[in-house]
Design goal:
By secondary structure, the chain is of the alpha/beta class. The chain has one domain. Helix content is 22%, strand content 20%. Strands 1, 2, 3, 4, 5, 6, 8, 9, 10 and 11 form a ten-stranded mixed beta sheet that branches. The chain has a two-stranded antiparallel sheet with strand order 7-12. α5 crosses α6. GO terms for molecular function: alpha-1,6-mannosyltransferase activity. It holds the Pfam family Gly_transf_sug. This is Alpha 1,4-glycosyltransferase domain-containing protein.
């Protein structure tokens, strides 16, 4: 199948790799020499491991100056890695299954849906980290995500709690208790079994929504709601995922925001990081890896 070069009405989001490619790939920016971070020598890794950061754009984005946090990724990302901006006609889209392509192109009626799905597809098919453009990274990548001295040394996939909300009162402002964010998702290598199953789950769920409903609950399609529900299903937990034991002393994601829930299945380890690693409230804490600034530009052009 040839590349789809349609320009769709727009939403901007992010993913990271060694080149920094802007827009349609016509402009290349060298980031060599801009780093002030000491990058430790990487340990021996699986040859399938990738080091990439990616931002995704569903349609044209009008003002790149609105994303100052992009500079933090250039500063904190190992120079051997690439930083790339992906569009809906990126070459990896040709790898999608027929069902995935059908859903992905159908989502173009509402750019935020297509952008959310493009992030998931990118982290599944390409690996690395997919992040929103309003996310500031505050620790070296990929060292903080897979280094031997981190809680994530054995993780194949890393997701994180969106906010420390676990009761009936606070959940009124969210869609799930123990909600899992999709503004920064990591896979050590392409084609994680977990992420593949998650994508299939979302494809099947998409068919249950009214066609082209512009008032659809965005997080219920390819966002936090669906991701959180699937983690519960995939882990086969007999209690909410945030109340599953994560520490030898009985801690959980709810009681210990520095802990990590580990799901070991199909020869990979899926890690759900506690709220102090990637949540909207982690700023200022030693564990914090990324800070989400809630720019929400997509609300102006869903």
């Amino acid at each position: 199948m040839g590349r789809d070069t349609r320009i769709l009405p727009g939403v901007a989001l992010l993913a990271v790799s060694a080149l920094f490619i802007i827009g349609n790939g016509l402009s290349l920016v060298s980031v060599a020499g801009t780093h002030r971070i000491e990058f430790l020598k990487a340990r021996a890794t699986n040859p399938q491991d990738v080091c990439r950061v990616q931002f995704v754009f569903a349609g044209p984005k009008y003002d790149y100056s609105q994303f100052p946090n992009l500079q933090t990724w250039i500063r904190y990302t190992d120079p051997k890695c690439s930083i790339e901006i992906l569009r809906p006609y990126h070459r990896f889209i040709t790898q999608l299954t027929a069902a995935e392509k059908r859903m992905f192109y159908d989502m173009a009626y509402l750019p935020i849906l297509q952008a959310d799905m493009l992030k998931l597809l990118a982290v599944y098919y390409l690996g690395g980290v997919s992040a929103d453009l309003d996310v500031e990274v505050v620790k070296p990548f990929p060292q903080a995500w897979q280094g031997d001295d981190t809680p994530f040394a054995t993780c194949d996939v890393i997701l994180g709690i969106e906010t420390a909300c676990y009761d009936d009162d606070c959940v009124k402002n969210y869609v799930r208790k123990g909600q899992i964010q999709n503004w920064a998702m990591f896979a050590r290598r392409p084609r994680s079994h977990f992420l593949g199953e998650l994508v299939s789950y979302i494809v099947n769920k998409y068919d249950t929504f009214p066609s082209h409903d512009k008032n659809v609950a965005v997080q219920e399609v390819a966002g936090s709601g669906s991701i959180t529900d699937f983690v519960q299903i995939y882990g086969e937990f007999d209690k909410p995922h945030y109340r599953v034991q994560t520490t030898p002393s009985g801690g959980t994601l709810e009681s210990d925001p520095t802990s990590v829930l580990r799901i070991k299945n199909n020869r990979e380890e899926v890690c759900i990081a506690g709220a102090l690693y990637t949540s909207g409230e982690c700023s200022g804490h030693a564990e914090c890896m990324v800070i989400h600034h809630f720019e929400q530009s997509w609300r102006h052009n869903r």
